Amino acid sequence: MKPLIYDFSLEELQQWAKDNGEPAFRGGQIFDWLYVKRVNDFESMSNLSKTLRAKLTEQFSINALTEITKLESKDGTVKFLFGLHDDHAIETVIMKHNYGNSVCVTTQVGCRIGCTFCASTLGGLKRDLTAGEIVAQVVRSQQILDARGERVSSIVIMGTGEPFENYDATMRFLRLMIHEKGLNIGQRHITVSTSGIVPNIYKFAEEDTQINLAISIHAPNDALRSKLMPVNRRYPFDDVIESLRYYQAKTGRRISFEYALIGGVNDQPEHAKELAGVLKTMLCHVNLIPVNHVPERKYVRTSRNDIFEFQRILADQGVNVTIRREQGHDIAAACGQLRAKHMELG
């Protein structure tokens, strides 16, 4: 398997050019063709010599993703199932908002975190994606939006997988996304979501970025969170909160908490009061997510009135809180529903 060219930084492409007897600026031209002109093959890089284009074709792959299926929601959300070089598949979602287009990317084939309300973890973890395979999801999304004269305005790393268990590839992906000579996505328009991999929350605090951090919390205490999220047994609730307080002290940035409301499980007034007690001293925002249907899971949605009551209790305690607007529910592209659907058919 030839290396994927999206795995390489601008500096690495410049070095590759020099190693192949070319001036370093050729690496910059290649980078421009990939991220600004967004071509799908090396032959289209018309300001490079035929010899250089042949070397690129010989040494690199440029096509990381093969479209298997495409589903469009009535709300404008588009979900893609992409095949990878090794017959695995991943899902990527483009969501249309009134402020622009957001792309939800996947960082792993499958997931081993084991959240009991989520479809992504049902088949376990198959492998990590490379940085280039994550990059390719955004580039492909931008190519699709190019046809409409639109652009990717934000990225959420909330697809299948735990980004902080694929930390190095995720950080390389982020650096490629924010590069001013590439797609140049604003750091504050990118959010990375973790289930609470404590060592890498500390590590992320030292990265000196403006990228947003979101935490899947889903419970106000250790016992309940361990039932819903087995990862809590490795990284207990109090340790997660402590690491987030360190992150906040280090960066001064607001943290988002994602809380899936599950009928009769974690949605009672006492849960809201306990959660408020933990979070009210933190600079944060809570995103309440009515749990989405997954056939293999028996959970039911919290009633509409109980959702608003949960929100009211948090707000009355001074916690910034909103209820997530649902998108892509009719095509199983909503939170907790992503999976490689074709795997079920095999």
Automatic annotation (TrEMBL):
**Cross-referenced SUPFAM superfamilies, in alphabetical order?**
Radical SAM enzymes
The Enzyme Commission number assigned here is 2.1.1.192
Q: Which residues form the active site?
A: E91, C335
Q: Could you tell me where this protein is found in the cell?
A: Cytoplasm
Annotated residues that bind S-adenosyl-L-methionine are located at: G161, E162, S193, S216, I217, H218, N292
Q: What is its main location?
A: cytoplasm
GO terms, biological process: methylation
Cofactors needed by this protein, per the record, are:
[4Fe-4S] cluster
Q: Domain of life, per the record?
A: Bacteria
- How would you classify this enzyme at the top EC level? transferase
Cofactor detail note: Binds 1 [4Fe-4S] cluster. The cluster is coordinated with 3 cysteines and an exchangeable S-adenosyl-L-methionine.
Q: Could you cite one Gene Ontology molecular function of this protein? A: methyltransferase activity
Q: Give the Radical SAM core domain ranges.
A: 97-330
The family database entries (InterPro entries) matched by this protein are listed as:
Aldolase_TIM, Methyltransferase_A, RlmN_N, RNA_MTrfase_RlmN, rRNA_lsu_MTrfase_RlmN/Cfr, rSAM, rSAM_sf
Q: Which UniProt keywords apply?
A: 4Fe-4S, Cytoplasm, Disulfide bond, Iron, Iron-sulfur, Metal-binding, Methyltransferase, rRNA processing, S-adenosyl-L-methionine, Transferase, tRNA processing
Q: Does the keyword Cytoplasm apply?
A: yes
**What's the catalysed reaction?**
adenosine(37) in tRNA + 2 reduced [2Fe-2S]-[ferredoxin] + 2 S-adenosyl-L-methionine = 2-methyladenosine(37) in tRNA + 5'-deoxyadenosine + L-methionine + 2 oxidized [2Fe-2S]-[ferredoxin] + S-adenosyl-L-homocysteine; adenosine(2503) in 23S rRNA + 2 reduced [2Fe-2S]-[ferredoxin] + 2 S-adenosyl-L-methionine = 2-methyladenosine(2503) in 23S rRNA + 5'-deoxyadenosine + L-methionine + 2 oxidized [2Fe-2S]-[ferredoxin] + S-adenosyl-L-homocysteine
PANTHER family attached to this UniProt entry: 23S RRNA METHYLTRANSFERASE (PTHR30544), RADICAL SAM CORE DOMAIN-CONTAINING PROTEIN (PTHR30544:SF5)
Q: What does this protein do?
A: Specifically methylates position 2 of adenine 2503 in 23S rRNA and position 2 of adenine 37 in tRNAs.
What is the protein's name according to its record? Probable dual-specificity RNA methyltransferase RlmN
